[in-house]
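Progress note, sequence design subtask.
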């Protein structure tokens, strides 16, 4: 399986366009530009799937050589988009994919039902909605199988009051040819036994790196809400759990601009935009 990191930052990116905080300032000074969270995956190198579609998707697709269109005028290697949340930073890029001849979207029923973009997009492209049932393996083109697990119930702000439990998912992708397993969980509010089992045996995992420490939102942004209340377990609370997963290469993505690891050296592996991983 090939895994291309398209973007490694949380909503807003790093630096964020209107933010003069220390983290965004440091990113500007260092020339760091992390676009918003998403990856592209493929089993055979020809059929690709996007995991989330950030507002930066156009630039991300242009930067990934495997996603180059052709040979037909509107042929694209992108076979579909799998969404892990209905948040704006994971879904606004769908609008930029409206030129697709067909667009297949995979997400939980709750997420598909909540997206205001769905009725809009269906006027522009042949939109195909596929419910990802939690726990059940779903075959994809190119020899991949995906399984979703519900990991959180945080409702996006625009959908407050909407029904449903399965708002936030992790994805486990398996290459049936090589046996390689990739787990993608960049929004992880808590570490449950179910998630521990879901991660078990993965070769590569991209986990929630929004915040480095529990007190970071308070210290670096003056916020009263904790990382958990925002739906993101801080990295320092994840690290002890990883002792049970020594065989898994873990990278952290979806970095917030308060996260000191977004710029410069880091004591853990932090995903970089454009990075190619294999398993
Ligand atoms: C999140 O990851 O918690 C959301 O994307 C926050 C947001 O950008 O509104
Ligand atoms: Mn986000
Ligand atoms: Zn900032």
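Output:
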């Amino acid at each position: 399986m090939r895994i291309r990191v398209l973007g490694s930052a949380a909503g807003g990116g790093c630096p964020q366009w209107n933010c003069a905080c220390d983290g965004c300032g440091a990113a500007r000074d260092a020339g760091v530009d992390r676009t918003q969270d998403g990856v592209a995956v493929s089993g055979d190198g020809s059929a690709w799937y996007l995991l989330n579609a950030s507002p930066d998707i156009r630039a991300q697709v242009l930067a990934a050589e495997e996603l180059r269109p052709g040979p037909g005028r509107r042929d694209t290697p992108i076979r579909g988009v799998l969404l892990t949340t209905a948040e704006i930073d994971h879904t606004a890029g769908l609008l930029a994919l409206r030129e697709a001849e067909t667009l297949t979207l995979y997400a939980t029923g709750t997420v598909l039902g909540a997206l205001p973009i769905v009725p809009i997009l269906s006027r522009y492209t042949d939109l195909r909605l596929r419910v990802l049932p939690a726990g059940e393996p779903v075959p994809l083109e190119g020899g991949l199988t995906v399984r979703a697990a519900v990991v959180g119930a945080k409702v996006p702000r625009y959908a407050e009051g909407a029904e449903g439990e399965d708002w936030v998912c992790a994805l486990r992708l398996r290459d049936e040819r090589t046996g390689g397993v990739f787990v993608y969980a960049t929004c992880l509010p808590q570490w449950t036994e179910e998630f521990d089992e879901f991660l078990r045996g993965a070769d590569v995992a991209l986990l929630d790196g929004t915040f480095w420490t529990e007190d970071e939102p308070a210290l670096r942004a003056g916020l009263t809400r904790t990382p958990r209340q925002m739906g993101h377990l801080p990295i320092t609370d994840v690290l002890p759990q990883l002792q049970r997963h020594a065989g898994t290469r873990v990278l952290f993505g979806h970095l917030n601009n308060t996260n000191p690891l977004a710029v410069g050296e880091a004591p853990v592996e932090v995903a970089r935009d454009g990075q190619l991983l294999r398993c």
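The chain has a mean pLDDT of 98. Work on this subtask will continue into the next period as scheduled.
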